[in-house]
Amino acid sequence: MNISSQPLTLIWDLDDFPNMERSDIILWSSFNETDNKDIISMPLYIEENGDELKALYLSWIFELGESYIKDKTLIDHLQIRRNFSYWWMTGIAQKKMITSMPEITNAIKLIALERLVQSNGIFGIHLQTQNSVLKSILEEWCFRRKIVFKCEFSRPLIPSEKRGIASKLPPLIKAAGWLMLFLSKRIVFLRRRTKLANKVSAKAITFFNYFTNLREESLQERKFSSSYWGTLPESIRAMGYSQEWFHMFVVNGTAPSAQKAATAALNFEESVSGIDSHEFIDEYVSGKVLFYTLIDYIKVAIMGIKLYRAKRLFLYKESELNLWPAFSQDWRDSFFGIGAISNCLYLNLFDDLLKTNLKKKVGFYLLENQPWELAMIAAWKANGHGTLVGIPHSTVRFWDLRYFNDRRTFSTAGLHGLPKPDLIAANGRAACDAYTKWGYPSGELVEIEALRYLYVANNNKYQKNEIEEMDPLRILVLGDYSLPETQRQIKCLESAVRYVKGNLIFLVKPHPACPIVLSDYPSLSMEIVEEPLNELIGKCDVAFTSNSTSASVDMYLSGVPVISILDPRKLNMSPLREIKDINFISSPKELAKAFDRIRKLTSIPSAINYFTVDQGLPRWKHLVSRLSGVRL
Fold this sequence. Notes:
- The chain is α/β, with parallel strands linked by helices.
- 37% of the residues lie in helices and 14% in strands.
- The protein has 21 helices and 22 strands.
- The protein has a seven-stranded parallel β-sheet with strand order 12-11-10-13-14-15-16, sandwiched between helices.
- Helix 7 packs across helix 14, helix 14 (338-356) packs parallel to helix 15 and helix 17 packs across helix 20 (588-600).
């Protein structure tokens, strides 16, 4: 690769391809589909240098928290409890890939640009974009480096996000509105407050759970059954332990209202004659909790005002790259907006919940590194409860940065270090390897069965049959939950057909949240299929998936060859990114070549042991008995 040090390097951040004969081009949000190897595709560059760039970004976040303002680090300035810093609840430290994907992606691209320039040099930049934040950052960067900056900026005709009146309101008004809406949806819980947990045996195992992903038969049969936890509750009950469940209420199809959720929880208790308890964390909202929530909100807002100058800390280490514009909105939300008030509410909810209940010996919670989890961990440890275990219930993806921290985070001493569980119970070798590779202490990891994926053991296995040259290749298209992603996926398929040798058959399984209208793609002869994935394994030769869908894991573990399409505007969020046998494609030509390669395969490489699956749950039983001090 060569960045020309001649007049202005073009950074192209538009959907179409630049129509010009030149080599000094950096494609910011697209792949290079030409034969010109000197054109740099930033998405491809990040994919090829993922380990280094991920480490650089995590290092920057760590050093940002450890930066000094006067005589204290930023983390210490944000102390909100005796042993807890509010820093860990901010959006920046959280690294939320769902809500902050564009900001984090652009920050990593900018770090990559800095790296490229350091090794190649640059005379100046000609930027074409619709992104005002990118324009602001690169303009300041060029000014600081004393190089030429030229920009052709155009506002998008269709905003990427629909912004209503609410988005223009001051953060304080947003925070107040969120709190009122939160309370109005949970009035039933405020009246309920049964305190049943205090009646549960001291031998009870404690769980923190989302009240969603309940199995369809759960409400009908009035028995608690969750996809998150599989058959574990029954297994623990058979071992002689009672259970106390603290649920986070989430509006969903199974429990669309607090009233239905509260009724279901009572039914779950009655079904086991009160041996177990099912409460909602939201039940602990009280006048006292709200009062201290507002006190904490004021404290956090004052912190935000006092730390206004913290934006100077957002200069990327020893460079001229100022990332503040990318994260300024996230920062304001964390100190003044919805993020601030929700964080303060959960701090006080868990303070009250874990102060007023009996001492707990063992606790398990669904680990996604959400702010409420940090509030719970801090309160659990401050109140002297027993062993706390985090359960990553799904895949641990390479670019899902919520799960990763700079290695120094785990060795930094101090009262305000990262709140973490005593153990992480990982659902297979892939998750364990992901954690240890990025510095998580191996002594704090334990491998257990993947409760959400036990069915994998019973899945049909794909049998590779030799495909004759004239036989059609059967392609199972697995749609995404996002309409734009699904459209992009099928349009790539449309364009790839003309490059493919031989006949193709298309079976399309849409995501439940995103129906596919066949008439929108008249050039493709497709058939919609509704069968479960397990029943489709024998009906296809290859699965073509969107980038982030977990269905790709099902196909891979069943032995079906997988092709996944990359999204140039996002990081590669595929749960199979680290698997060498997966075909990642970025263009119709690459898709066609992948189809041709798979047609010629004579055997399928064996899948790695991605999940630990044993329906007897021996690892789980051993862990529960060990932590409870009772031998099986």
